[in-house]
């Protein structure tokens, strides 16, 4: 029963606008987290079912009851236990949520779902939101951008992501760390896009990973691990990680080329504190600055700039299914304006012959290729550099990786050099 109460409380926080990462507390059990993730991942199909199972929609003041029913429907199909147990636990959870009057309603709806679920799925076959479990505005944008791959992309967003490690090559090699994992009985395999990447067959708590506390490895998606190689780093260069928190990319840069003069910059004290924590665990060091990039005025310009801009995060929905509920269609234009502003500022901080790497964890051209195309057209001193990769969609503007089942997240990269035309 308690796992449902906890899951609903998590979901209520998300419905109130908080991210799933913030909504989940240390006291929430793995099962309550699984239920919360499952409801968010399947929210649109679950809601479509509920709509067919009740005579009239539940009122806003009874949102907790609605979310509890969604959690019950998800549990019937997804949890490895008898369906009647999920029904009973969900019914009893109404008491824990101080909604005892709803026990009869919850019981009736969930048992009705058990009887009708095959017919309900058939009735949803023309509902794109329900069938893809994505909001219609995002379905439309993905279909427009990728007419032949839209369903594959949205299906990949529904699959639980792999756990990917980045090997700290300053302390060990990928081959040696794979051997250590094997000795610990942990099945793993090397990635294909980054020479530092390792995929675990089954996710593990980091405290079970050999040498994690000593900095031998970090958790990071393989796409992000490509960044140091794309920056074309050299010893002694002045490098700016312009939107650095939580510091994974900062640390990856230092692990692979520790002789650069790196500044990690981000806008909030709490955000830069996390960067410092990651640096400390990995025994790395650089200048960490709490400042708005738009106000940053260094004494010297940078040879390399990593600009990983704030974005819609539509490439990492499988890790953060709350994005589908929290993000709005109107956010995309606002984000695009911010991205263009940050790109223009970062460009002003780049020295002649310097290189800027623009990146997002988005799959939407509005934040990626379109931004770069407009920028290069407006700047005679901007030259696009090629990106060699045997995966993703290459264009003149850069490389778009799409979320891949068992592989990397969705990510976009563009390399731009400043030169005298």
Which terms summarize this structure?
421 residues; alpha/beta; 3 domains; 4-stranded antiparallel beta sheet; Rossmann fold; N-utilizing Substance Protein B Homolog, Chain A; 18 helices; single chain; Alpha-Beta Plaits; globular
Q: CATH homologous superfamily name of the largest domain?
A: Vaccinia Virus protein VP39
Give the tally of structural domains: 3
> Beta fraction of the residues?
15-25%
In the predicted model, the low-confidence regions spanning at least 5 consecutive residues are none
- The tally of strands reads 13
Gross geometry: globular
**Tell me about the biggest sheet?**
9 strands, mixed
CATH class of the largest domain: Alpha Beta
* DSSP helical segment count: 18
Terminus-to-terminus distance: 68 Å
Portion of residues in helices? 40-55%
Q: What is the overall pLDDT average? A: 96
Structural class: alpha/beta
Task: Predict the CATH topology of the largest domain.
Answer: Rossmann fold
Proper CATH architecture of the largest domain: 3-Layer(aba) Sandwich
For the CA atoms, what is the radius of gyration? 23 Å
């Amino acid at each position: 029963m308690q796992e449902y109460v906890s899951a609903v409380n998590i979901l209520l926080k998300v419905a109130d606008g908080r991210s799933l990462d913030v909504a989940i507390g240390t006291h929430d059990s793995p099962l309550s987290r699984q239920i919360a993730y499952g409801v968010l991942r399947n929210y649109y199909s679950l809601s479509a079912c509920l709509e067919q199972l009740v005579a009239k929609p539940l009122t806003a003041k009874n949102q907790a009851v609605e979310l509890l029913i969604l959690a019950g429907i998800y549990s019937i199909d997804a949890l490895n236990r008898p369906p009647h147990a999920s029904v009973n636990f969900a019914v009893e959870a109404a008491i824990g949520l101080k909604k005892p009057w709803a026990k009869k309603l919850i019981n009736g709806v969930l048992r009705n779902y058990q009887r009708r679920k095959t017919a309900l799925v058939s009735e949803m076959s023309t509902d794109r939101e329900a069938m893809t479990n994505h909001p219609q505005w995002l379905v439309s944008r993905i279909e427009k951008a990728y007419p032949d791959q839209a369903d594959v992309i949205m299906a990949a967003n529904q699959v639980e992501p792999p756990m990917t490690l980045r090997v700290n090559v300053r302390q060990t090699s990928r081959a040696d760390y794979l051997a250590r994992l094997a000795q610990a009985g942990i099945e793993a395999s090397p990635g294909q896009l980054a020479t530092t990447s390792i995929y675990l067959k089954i996710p593990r708590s980091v405290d079970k990973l050999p040498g994690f506390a000593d900095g031998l490895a970090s958790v990071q998606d393989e796409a992000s691990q490509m960044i140091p190689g794309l920056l074309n780093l050299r010893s002694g260069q002045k490098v700016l990680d312009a939107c650095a928190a939580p510091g994974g990319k900062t640390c990856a840069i230092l692990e692979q080329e520790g002789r650069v003069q790196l500044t990690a910059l981000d806008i909030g004290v709490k955000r830069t504190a996390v960067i410092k924590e990651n640096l400390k665990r990995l025994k790395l060091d650089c200048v960490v600055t709490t400042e708005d990039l738009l106000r940053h005025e260094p004494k010297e310009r940078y040879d390399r700039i990593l600009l990983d801009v704030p974005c819609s995060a539509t490439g990492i929905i499988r890790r953060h299914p709350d994005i589908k509920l929290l993000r709005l269609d109107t956010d995309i234009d606002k984000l695009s304006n911010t991205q263009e502003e940050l790109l223009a500022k970062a460009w002003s901080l780049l020295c002649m012959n310097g290189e800027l790497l623009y990146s997002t964890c988005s799959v939407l051209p509005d934040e990626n290729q379109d931004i770069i195309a407009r920028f290069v057209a407006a700047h005679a001193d901007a030259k696009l550099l090629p990106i060699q990769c045997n995966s993703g969609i290459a264009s003149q503007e850069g490389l778009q990786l799409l979320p891949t089942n068992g592989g990397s997240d969705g990510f976009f990269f563009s390399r731009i050099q400043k030169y005298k035309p």
